Amino acid sequence: MPPSTHREPTGTQSARPHSERITLANFIDGKHVAGGRTFENISPVDGSVVATVHEAGADTVDTAVQAARKALEGPWAAFSVTDRVRMLRRIADVIEARSEDFVTAEVRDTGRPEKVVRDLDVPRAAMNFRVFADCIASASLPAYLTDLAHGRQALNYAVNKPLGVVAVIVPWNLPLLLLTWKVAPALAYGNAVVVKPSEETPSSATLLAEIMVEAGVPAGVYNVINGFGTGSTGEFLTTHRGVDGVTFTGESATGSAIMRAVAPSVRPVSFELGGKNAAIIFDDANLEAALDGLTRSIFLNTGQVCLSTERVYIQRGIFDQFTAELVQRGRALRLGAPDEPSTTTGPLISRQHRDKVLSYYDLAVQEGAEVLLGGGVPDLGAPLDGGAWIQPTLWVGLDNTARTVREEIFGPAAALIPFDIEDEAIRLANDTDYGLAAAVWTSNLERGHRVAQRMRVGMAWVNTWFLRDLRSPFGGIGLSGIGREGGEHSAHFYAEPTNVCVQL
Ligand code: NAD
Ligand code: 6OD
Predict the structure, then answer these.
(1) CA–centroid distance, residue 153 to ligand 2 (Å)
(2) Is 306 a catalytic residue?
């Protein structure tokens, strides 16, 4: 059994510079387990190797699924709702206590500014567990009295049971936030999980295993297997018949592959997929607030947020002025090392992803775009020039027929497009195969409600963006997903109700 991290006893990723190379094993049944092969994890900051990761082959995946199934029948089954509430709250406490270890883990894998991880991701990870603790603590299922013939009645009530062994497959863009957003409800409803983090970002999921041990989660309830997708760990997991359901966040095309994998045995899925999100800026908006909000929604996390705005529809009367000021805001962004306090913007996740984003930068120009900001690779000097850096970019001159305006780029770039009247803005915003999120900026609240309700998306914001109440339903329409998670909505996937009908 190898240690979780290179040259140290099991369970310590703490107090290390994020540039120091570590070794990450799989975590199964409470123990760190080697895989057959290893792969290297590369820092997008400078291209250095930051981790050697054990890949889980088919046998290791099978061991993890068996461990999870065994855990469902072990001491975990005897945990009452009150026990689970206490446990989830303990997990949140330990995450907060080890906040700096998570900052190190996230920055090692993603190169994101430390401040963003410290202020956004770690508190949100703890909050994910607290919200689902509160949710199950207060949940109750309705009972129904059914009137039968001759004055007789029947009593119907439902009991929630766990779905079972849940495969949790997550992407690289917000590794800790998105992982805990799935693991918290899974454990709240009594499931056992087999987690497959992205091959680009294995650190936080492995570190979370240490937190689970410290918080007293029984062995086998939380398992981590590392590796790739197609033909590797991800596919071995989704095709494993011991998995009762798959909750997945990632690309729409991957969601489609996972649907095919689970189809033969008809298992449920919950999918949070890609987006091509629109913002609509009306000429009556508070323009300073809209500029600040839009700068955040286009460039936060280097545009690698599923909710990021990639299409901006601006009312014609303010188009030139608004566009010029947005460019100024884009120029003020500071690309730089994660530990530099003035850094606002990190690199993309990898050189491979940068190639994809740059191909859209080229395509936009071929499609007739005028580049108002960026459009290429910055010159940051050594050692950062070994990383996956890219310039924040804004275009005008494109319309909804351009591929640049129709396909998800997942980088720090947006097309700015004028419109004249409200109905036109709604039609343009809804003209997409995706349907994740939209933001409407206006001082006319009546219009704000009206337009937001007509957006064909899972989440519509008015005069804000990515403001979350974790009890509200989160998910997408069309290519953007299947199902909703959040608060009690999560029970639709993570719990299986059994209805009991008693004739009285
Ligand atoms: P991805 O789909 O390439 O990978 C996501 C995960 O799936 C990874 O762990 C990967 O190894 C695994 N995977 C890949 N192929 C698989 C297969 N055939 N079987 C099983 N597992 C497989 O996505 P990504 O590039 O890591 O993340 C970026 C994408 O995620 C973007 O499209 C983004 O919009 C989307 N995303 C959506 C949301 C949301 O809430 N809707 C949130 C974050 C990211
Ligand atoms: O806030 C959330 O719960 C959530 N799932 C955010 C997704 C962000 C996508 O990158």
Answers:
(1) 45
(2) yes
